[in-house]
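Researcher: Here's a chain I'd like modeled. Treat it as a single chain, no partners, no ligands.
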Amino acid sequence: MLLRDISLFLNVDEYERIYRSDFQFRSRYLCNFVRRRIKPLRFRTEGFGSIAVQGCREPKEGCPIEGEKVAAPRVRFDRQRYDSLRPEECHELFIGMLWQGLEKCARHHRIPLLEMEAAIDEFRAGGYRNEWTFKRRTFRSFGLEASLNCSLDMEKFVLTLEVERKGVVVYDAPILETKPDELIFAYQFKDVVLDGQALVVMSKSGEATFSLDLGALA
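Model: Modeled as a single isolated chain. Structure tokens:
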């Protein structure tokens, strides 16, 4: 199977639902970054398509394959420490938990551990920022280049539309903001197309997420 996803979450039996949900939202910016670096490798695993590192009070050894073919290593979650940290202090806690889980997984299954380590190092060196350009389109008839730029942090996902004319930015504004989870934001944009006198950001279902009247550009 192809390794497609990496996640970090808390044990469903030990922590209340709202607390677990908040933790998973807040840590997704890191997991998404590593996932995007690993996905192009098309790395083939034996019997699982994702790795879900699970935080719990007393982690057991091993890395069982559970549910929907998920490798599930357990690591210790220090709730008291987590609750005492300011948001900017959580980066290394998330990294530490994820890395411990990936190392444990690697002791039982073949995974691209070196590439994952490089991704985490890149994330850390970049100031814990997860930003990327999803798509760039050129519309020669109007002399325009449009880009869909993404930003994902602990609090939110933001999609920004940037439009340039001859190297000069004539439009740059957020057009979508959601909670930080691909299940919420990923389906809401797929492409940016020209429709008459408008640039339209299309969703994966073929509906318009946002439309920009080109006549309003400077």
